[in-house]
Structure formats: C-alpha cells, structure tokens
Amino acid sequence: MAYIKLLYHIVIRAHQGTAPIAEEYERDLYMYIYGFCKNHQCVLYRINGMPDHVHIFVGLHPTIAVASFVHDLKIATNNFMAKHNDRFPKFEKWEQSYCALTYSESDKECVIKYIMNQKEHHRKMSARDELIALLRESGVEYDEKYI
Fold first, then answer.
1. What's the mean pLDDT in 42-64?
2. What is the average per-residue pLDDT within 5-21?
3. CA distance 63 to 67
4. E strands of 23-134, at which residues?
5. Which 8-state DSSP code applies to residue 63?
6. What is the pLDDT of residue 5?
7. Intra-chain end-to-end CA distance of the chain, in Å
8. How far, in Å, CA of 35 to CA of 55, rounded?
9. In this structure, how many other beta carbons lie within 10 angstroms of the beta carbon of residue 49?
10. Where is average pLDDT lowest: 45-54, 80-89, 122-131?
11. DSSP, res 105
C-alpha cells in the first residue's frame, strides 16, 4: 500500500498578458475547473485569480503527473472558454509555461489564504512580481525573460 499526498499550487497565465477573465464570469470558469479536478480524482482546495491568471491549490491523484494535469486542464479550459466565447471574448490561449509548487499539509491553510486574497494582493503587486516572489520563496531557478 502506498500513502501519498501531493499538494500543488499551480499558476496558469493567459497568453501574452492578456486579461480575458472578466470578474463577472470568473466563477463560471472556476466551477468548470472544480468539475475538471473532481473528474480527475483530484481535490481542489482553493481557486482564485485575476483577469490574466488563475491560482489553483489542488491535491493531485497519485496516478496523475503534474505536467499531464496542467496540459489537460489547459486544453479543457481552452475548449470551455471557446464554447462560451460570449463570456470570454478576449481569451486566445494559455501561456505554454506554468508554475507548479509543492507544499506540505502544514502549509495548506497558508496557501489557501494566499489564494483567497488574490484581489487584495494584486493591489500592491503585479502578476510578474508575484510569480518571481513565489519562485524565489520556493527556491526555483528561473530565467526572467520567460516571466
């Protein structure tokens, strides 16, 4: 028997910094992502974001690799937003890159609160600066030309 818990904070961004997620329709997208997670036997702990990016805190099923999860999520949400173009007319696609950071159970509440407070957080910090701060805090090496 394997005992596994995989908690990921995932950030996906709209292509070239566009802002296609209107606040009035973000809940539709978030509910779709909730269903996607549930259908993939994953636990969505929190989702929130801004018009140009989405933060997802999820417990992945042990049979799903994070790269596969993000790839399939992007395809599914691309299709969802294309189908609902009246709500997401500015959406083209997601950036190819993404951020996926692991956390322990003891970090869970802190990450949930962080994601809950996205709108407040971004009154003080740009999405780019936020991503750099998350990467630095997690000790992830990065190249600024890709951020």
1. 97
2. 94
3. 12
4. 43-50, 53-60, 99-103
5. T
6. 93
7. 40
8. 16
9. 23
10. 122-131
11. G
